[in-house]
């Protein structure tokens, strides 16, 4: 079964690699992943789609919560959230095909974002099923290039996934911790001085 996870992480270099590395080490497959900063630039949000049974999902969630940069992990149930994907599709649209492509674009409420003599680039947003249906309809015309985002999702209503206060608390806590690298460097320097 497919599950969508909203993972709030500190906006630090290497966090994406640590999260994806965790999945790779444990043998969990990521169906899609989308990452960007939130309204708080110190916090990033990952939307991860995984194919897993309930036991595996619980294991994934526990492993993610062990990572120091992870603030919060929440599963977004389909009935309690909205999700979207975006796709850019470069379609052959020369001669008689152009009218058909424009008609399909109109039916799907997509938009044309680039036009040339022999091709158009269409932008389509919506559920995964909608985008798949659009792609299948324009495929006979000739798809020259295709790029899709991963799924992004958000909880419906006033409930928030974001835990901005928790992120600030974590950052404050990290500032209170002694800088271990500086302490090690000082110890090494003191040790070298004694040897001389």
What does this entry look like structurally?
A hairpin with a 5-residue loop joins strand 2 (30-37) and strand 3. The strands form 2 sheets. Strands 5, 6, 7, 8 and 9 form a 5-stranded antiparallel β-sheet that branches. The N and C termini lie far apart (65 Å). This protein has 196 residues and is α+β, with helices and mostly antiparallel strands. It contains 6 helices and 9 strands; from the N terminus they run E-H-E-E-H-E-E-H-E-E-H-E-E-H-H.
The mean pLDDT is 86
Q: How many individual β-strands?
A: 9
The secondary-structure class comes to alpha+beta
Proportion of strand residues: 25-35%
Radius of gyration: 23 Å
- Main sheet summary: 5 strands, antiparallel
Helix content: 25-40%
Low-confidence stretches are none
Number of helices: 6
State the end-to-end distance. 65 Å
What would you call the shape? Answer: elongated
| H-E string | EHEEHEEHEEHEEHH
Keywords, separated by commas or semicolons:
9 strands, four-stranded antiparallel beta sheet, 196 residues
């Amino acid at each position: 079964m497919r599950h969508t996870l909203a993972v709030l992480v500190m906006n630090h270099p290497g966090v994406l690699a640590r999260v994806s590395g965790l999945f790779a080490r444990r043998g969990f497959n990521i169906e899609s992943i989308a990452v960007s900063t939130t309204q708080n630039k110190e916090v990033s949000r990952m939307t991860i789609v995984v194919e897993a049974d309930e036991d595996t999902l619980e294991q994934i969630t526990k492993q993610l919560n062990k990572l120091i940069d992870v603030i919060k992990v929440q599963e977004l149930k389909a009935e309690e959230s909205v999700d979207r994907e975006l796709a850019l599709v470069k379609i052959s649209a020369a001669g008689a095909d152009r009218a058909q492509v424009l008609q399909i674009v109109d039916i799907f409420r997509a938009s044309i974002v680039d036009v040339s003599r022999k091709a158009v680039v269409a932008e389509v947003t919506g559920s995964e099923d909608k985008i798949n249906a659009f792609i299948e309809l324009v495929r006979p015309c000739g798809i020259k290039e295709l790029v899709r985002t991963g799924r992004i999702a958000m909880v419906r209503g006033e409930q928030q996934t974001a835990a901005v206060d928790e992120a600030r608390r974590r950052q404050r806590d990290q500032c209170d911790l002694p800088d271990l690298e500086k302490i090690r460097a000082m110890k090494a320097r003191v040790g070298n001085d004694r040897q001389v």
